[in-house]
Design a protein that fits this description.
Layout: H1 11-16, E1 22-27, H2 32-47, E2 52-57, H3 62-67, E3 75-80, E4 83-89, H4 94-109
Parallel strand pairs: 1-2
Antiparallel strand pairs: 1-3, 3-4
Length: about 110
């Protein structure tokens, strides 16, 4: 399953204005660890209805990449109510990724 792609042009509409939390995968085609995370992110997206997962190609969308200070790939930014609430850098197993997401998302529900 391919994840939805966001760009500099639709980032605000797809991420910042989303009613549900959005995990943005900042990736690059040359990034091996990014490819490792693809199936993990696709599984997370398919299995969760409380979260939307999207991809942003850092090479093609430098405006958004620079705006959020992304310097390494993969970087994952979790947005809730239009604001970044979590930044993760580097690969991680699915269980760890979901635990990190759940910690922030459950705190936001309280």
């Amino acid at each position: 399953m391919d994840l939805p792609i966001v760009t500099d042009h639709n980032f605000a509409a797809e991420v910042l204005e989303s009613e549900q939390p959005v995990l943005v995968d900042f990736w690059a085609a040359w990034c091996g660890p990014c490819r490792v995370m693809n199936p993990i992110l696709a599984d997370v997206d398919a299995d969760r209805d409380d979260l939307k997962v999207v991809k942003l190609d850092t090479e093609a969308n430098q405006e958004t990449t620079i705006h959020y200070g992304v310097m390494a790939m993969p970087t994952f930014l979790l947005f809730k109510d239009g604001a970044p609430v979590l930044q993760l850098v580097g690969t991680r197993p699915r269980k760890r990724l979901e635990a990190e997401l759940d910690e922030v998302l459950s705190a936001a529900r309280r």
